[in-house]
Write a structure and sequence with these properties.
This protein is mostly helical and about 425 residues long. The chain is built from 15 helices and no strands. Helix 1 packs across helix 2 and helix 10 (about 250-280) runs antiparallel to helix 11 (about 285-315). The longest helix has about 35 residues, at about 210-245. The mean pLDDT is about 85.
Length: about 425
């Protein structure tokens, strides 16, 4: 399947996810406000870390090996069983630990031990979240895009109903509980659809560890764990810095702006993860990799730039539509955020080469370096330039990352 066909098919799921996100953003803005947005952001960052650790961070490796060995069923099944066993053991152990420390963890991360029950629900959900991620990784590697899109659409609708209902009913606590349960519920939809496929049976998802698969999955585990730790941890530190320097409301503005970026960038990031990861994994010729990169640049970078410019022009309308009047001051922060988004996608496009080729050492060093640099630039930027300094730091950091990726790829992929 080509990039254009994949993008068009995913556009259906992305469109529904965007509409759902618009509705959910409005509900959250009304019922939790800017300060609640910052707490939700902290919770989601921690969830990203925990779910990745619980699954053993094997999903990228599963996608890569499933695509790479498209003509070797034995190796594919060995990969799935190894990954499934890791997911089950890791998620059960992580869930038990999370349940045990839910109260102090809530106090430390969310600033309120009374919200401990959100972590309790998350602990019970981790097994199903990990298995859902595994099934989606297998579908991605098998290039079952139609089924992948169907599950994403169904998940978006479930998320809208669950998160919207619990937020309206219980406020911030309800939103946090719903975020804990959402992916776990989607697992049962994924399992029902995936296990109807003739090439997949439950016995293929757990069993004896395949040593060859384990060795290669461990490289992807190291890369994924680095991303899972560095990116959310950096965001947590940035929110804490902004809240300490300007107040929780300004941290909420920053979180809301990051959500807008994530929302419209799904048009680009979903095809990147669904098409590029398995495609780059199956290519064995360096020149073909470069052609694939140039093809992606010609399509995705102009699309990102046009979208970012449109978002900037419509920023007042978008904030009014997605949020409430309490969020109006954030419109002054859009210029540098949109600039950073465009450069970010340029760097990500090249970054998928490192991930798909299993270049673990440089990937890990890059993630740690630019994660730390982002936080340092935010601290310096806000001290020198005020609130807008956080968005300037975002743009500068991604520009430096893109420059590094151009240099590395051009010199080492031959």
């Amino acid at each position: 399947m080509t990039l254009i066909k994949t993008s068009l098919l995913n556009a259906i799921a992305v469109g529904i996810r965007i509409l759902n996100a618009i509705a959910l953003n409005k509900i959250l803005a009304i019922y939790v406000g800017p300060a609640g947005y910052a707490i939700i952001g902290q919770f989601q960052s921690l969830v990203a870390i925990l779910t990745t650790f619980a699954s053993g961070a094997v999903n990228a490796g599963v996608t890569k090996r499933t695509a790479q060995y498209f003509d070797d069923e034995t190796r594919q099944i060995g990969t799935w069983r190894t990954a499934g066993t890791i997911c089950i053991v890791g998620s059960v152990l992580t869930g038990m630990l999370l349940i045990a420390i839910s109260a102090p963890l809530s106090a430390m991360v969310l600033g309120d031990s009374a919200l401990w029950d959100a972590f309790l629900w998350l602990g019970f959900s981790l097994l199903f979240i990990a298995l859902n991620g595994l099934l989606l990784a297998i579908l991605n590697g098998k290039k079952q895009i139609g089924l992948f899109v169907l599950i994403n659409i169904t998940g978006s609708l479930i998320g809208l109903i669950l998160i919207g209902t619990l937020t309206i009913w219980l406020g911030l606590r309800g939103a946090l509980i719903a975020l804990s349960l959402n992916q776990a519920i989607i697992f049962f939809v994924s399992a029902a659809l995936c296990l109807r496929q003739p090439w997949l049976r439950p016995s293929m998802l757990f069993g004896r560890i395949d040593n060859e698969a384990l060795r290669e999955l461990l490289k992807f585990t190291a890369m994924a764990l680095t991303s899972a730790a560095v990116i959310p941890l950096t965001q947590i530190l940035i929110r804490q810095h902004l809240a300490g320097q300007f107040g929780a409301i300004y941290a909420g503005y920053w979180e809301a702006l990051m959500r807008i970026s994530s929302l419209y960038l799904m048009v680009v990031t979903v095809p990147l993860s669904v098409y590029y990861m398995p495609r780059l994994a199956e290519i064995r010729d360096a020149n073909e990799i470069k052609r694939e990169i140039m093809h992606g640049c010609r399509l995705l970078i102009p699309l990102t730039a046009i979208s970012a410019f449109a978002i900037y022009l419509l920023r007042d309308f978008i904030v009014a539509m997605l949020f409430t009047s309490d969020f109006a001051p954030m419109t002054a922060l859009f210029r540098w955020q949109m600039t950073g988004d465009v450069v970010k996608i340029c760097g990500w496009l090249l970054g998928y080469v490192l991930l798909a080729r299993g270049l673990a050492r440089v990937f890990i060093l890059t993630e740690i370096t630019f994660g730390a640099l982002w936080y340092v630039l935010v601290v310096i930027g806000t001290q020198k330039l005020g609130v807008e300094g956080a968005q300037i730091a975002y743009a500068v950091n991604h520009t430096l990352h893109f420059a590094f990726m151009i240099s590395y790829i051009s010199r080492n992929i031959k």
